[in-house]
């Protein structure tokens, strides 16, 4: 931790408000009422001050789409090195555990600055090319259908997260990486840890437990890459190792402009295994949370499953599985007329921007026929634009097409008050979701 380019770097002190920035002393995205329903609160905050300092979060909060896009499109002014970092300083016991010399993943994608980010993205982009996605569609539909068969065979009602929304994305991305199926549950547990580590506010006791889990997770990724180095298979990890053999980049020359190092290969595996499924699980749930209570729109989809792609994008706008992201000011600058000194951490509030009435008509209505739903910011923008957006969209579309075809009577079997959301500042999806049919 704390080394240059290390994957996670906990802040070592509590940040101070930029002079002159409007201030909110009490609001935090970890508040229970915000976790339950962020949108009304996000919109009220935007109305009060489009850019403001959250004392509890230690970040400047940016709520308007134009400002968020400006930040994403100017990586020389706003860096992304903090996007995988814990929000608050770690307790000494957890920091000590993570100081072990072999906990050394390096920043590779979302949190790596240029020019190295572009050097590495050349290789990861290949793993998620349109050609690969197209070739995956039949396989994905078959696996989704098998998992759905199993859910249906076990009978109504079903808990959708464990019976469908977790297994499908995990299966797709873990098999793309090459992880064996027998390890799925263990990796998922580590990912929950990681979500709490980087985006939650774990207690000191939890931090210690999580820190140990992070080390196990990293060691698992390293051992897996070492195994693939000895014996290749048809997966992204094997492709990355071959790319490393062909051009080891910084391993041969620290200033290399091409290639990928072995540690970077290990770190891509560590990064993708989280990014590639957790927000997709939540997206699969959120599509149902939006569609099933709005019976007219669900019936429209049942009658015409080709509306599934639009329904997915409208869900990403209206009830995204990722409702914020972070940046750090690299130089003194301004955002929305507010002075932002170098070093200021910024919290980009997608929950607010995706519901701006200047951009989306009747923004608080969910409407699968909305023509500009895809203009949401849920996959980011610019050089770090989500590498898996095509995969995520395809998984969610296939899931909806199958559900509409096989279970037209599908409905929610719990209500809002039964629903709990994992306390964190960024990812949003119910921890459990009861559905019924027939
Ligand atoms: C609904 C699902 C998903 C959402 C909402 C989402 C959202 C995001 C966002 C907001 C970013 C940051 C963009 C920026 O900084 O400009 C991002 C980056 C990234 N995402 Fe996703 N993502 C999803 C699914 C996936 C999947 C399935 C994968 C991989 C299989 C993936 C891999 C990545 C990677 C590698 C990056 C970093 C790209 C870079 O820095 O070049 N994501 N994603």
General description of the model:
With 438 residues, the chain is of the alpha+beta class. The chain has a single domain, classed as Cytochrome P450 (Cytochrome p450, Orthogonal Bundle), CATH 1.10.630.10. The protein is built from 17 helices and 11 strands. The chain has a 6-stranded mixed β-sheet. A 3-stranded antiparallel β-sheet has the order 5-11-10. Strands 7-8 form a two-stranded antiparallel ribbon. Helix 4 packs parallel to helix 10 (204-230), helix 6 packs parallel to helix 17 (389-406) and helix 10 packs across helix 12 (262-275). The radius of gyration is 21 Å and the shape is globular. The structure holds protoporphyrin IX containing FE.
Strand content: 5-15%
Give the names of the bound compounds: protoporphyrin IX containing FE
Indicate the overall shape: globular
For the record, what CATH class applies?
A: Mainly Alpha
Strand count: 11
Main sheet: which strands, in order across? 1-2-3-9-6-4
In the CATH classification, which architecture applies? Answer: Orthogonal Bundle
CATH fold-level label:
Cytochrome p450
| Span of the ends, CA to CA | 52 Å
Order of helices and strands: EHHEEHEHHHEHHHHHHHHHEEEEHHEE
For the report, how would you describe the main beta sheet? 6 strands, mixed
